[in-house]
Amino acid sequence: MSKQSAAASAPLGRPRGFDAEAALRIAVDLFWQQGYEVTSLEALCQAMGLSRSSFYACFGSKHALLMSAVQRYADDRYASLTERVAACANPREAVRAMLAVIADVDGGTRGCLFVNAVAELAPGDAELLLFAQSHTARVGALMTATLRRLGCTEAEASARAGALLALVMGVTTLRKTGVPASQLKGLLAQADHLIPSPPLPNRKHA
Asked: How many other CB atoms are found less than 10 A from the CB of residue 128?
């Protein structure tokens, strides 16, 4: 492709040398640290080195950028979950590892971008709510499948996964309020009561 044709095919309004991935990482950090409403368009443009017109040409709107940021964050976290599950020696350890990744008790008071955004904007934001339901479902499905490997029936595994996710999302919310990591670890330890020990003998999956 010639330089002329490459230039002609580049998105209009995007500055030369603009790195969309780097800009998205900046958006993730800003929304995660400050929330959606507090993060102004001016702050986003300044952090990314964009004019308003270039911002709209690149991202469409502030809300569209939020959706891209939340989706990227959630996809990265889900990839971390699947990697940790695959690396664990047994399913009980895998469930604990999933909870540790989600809770991130040593992650400071920013909490979880996904949970923060949902708490701030849902249920009034239909697009975000739909994505939240989809992401929660895929995390729940991964945890349910892992619990099934511990001998739970489908119904038991689904119920336990739902309870575990409710617990760990509560922990991430408390983390945002400044609850000490030591206390959060104590709360997270209660999850052990919901994780079966080794596979139960003579149990058949439903």
From this structure: 22
Q: How many domains does the chain have?
A: 1
Which CATH number does the domain housing residue 84 bear?
A: 1.10.357.10
* Cis, peptide link before residue 123, omega less than 30° from 0: yes
Task: Say how far apart CA 206 and CA 151 lie, in whole Å.
Answer: 10
Residue 204 in any domain: the answer is no
Is residue 187 a contact partner of residue 161, using CB atoms and an 8 Å limit?
no
Q: Say how far apart CA 139 and CA 185 lie, in whole Å.
A: 21
Tens of pLDDT, residue by residue over 84-104, are 999 998 999 999 999 999 999
Domain presence at residue 19: no
Q: Classify 115 as helix, strand or coil.
A: helix
Distance CA 161, CA 61 (A): 36
Q: For 105-147, what is each residue's pLDDT tens digit? A: 999 999 999 999 999 998 899 999 999 999 999 999 999 999 9
Nearest by Cα to 186 from 124, 103, 78: 103
For 187, residues 6+ apart whose C-beta sits below 8 A from its C-beta are 167, 170, 171, 174
